[in-house]
Design a protein that fits this description.
- By secondary structure, the protein is of the alpha/beta class.
- It has two domains: 1-28; 31-126, Cupredoxins -  blue copper proteins (Immunoglobulin-like), CATH 2.60.40.
- It contains one helix and eleven strands; from the N terminus they run αβββββββββββ.
- The termini are far apart.
């Protein structure tokens, strides 16, 4: 039994929707950004906050100060706070503004950070 044109259209739309959901949840924001040291020696990296953290992984060198600029481009209450539990840092992120979070990465490892509700996740990789 052959599919009619309208059935093919529905099938193609369904496949496109599935691929879109897969891309959003499993592929988007997976890139890693490496911090760049400025003239003062502070390593700096910017993270876009819009439906999640982009990028989700940040790489820095051990032993130096780190400044992470969170550029929050939304008003979703879930993203109004960022928490780095291993560094005892909790910072409010005003909507549609850039907020600097400074910490010192003293030892290598992988350290998670989340929103205040624990729904958004990222990783700070210290090498």
């Amino acid at each position: 039994m052959a599919l009619r044109t309208d059935e093919w259209a529905v099938l193609a739309g369904g496949i496109a929707a599935i691929l879109g959901v897969y891309r959003y949840f499993f592929l988007a924001g997976k890139a890693t950004a490496s911090a760049v040291a400025g003239p003062s020696g502070v390593q700096e990296v910017t993270v876009l906050v819009k439906g999640g953290y982009q990028p989700r992984e940040l790489r820095v060198r051990s032993g130096g100060p780190v400044r992470i600029i969170f550029d929050r481009q939304e008003t979703d209450p879930c993203s109004e706070e960022v928490v780095f539990p291993d560094f005892a840092v909790r910072r409010f992120l005003p909507p549609n503004r850039r907020t600097a979070v400074e910490l010192t990465a003293t030892r290598p490892g992988q350290f998670g950070f989340t929103c205040g509700m624990g729904m958004l996740h990222g990783t700070l990789i210290v090498e």
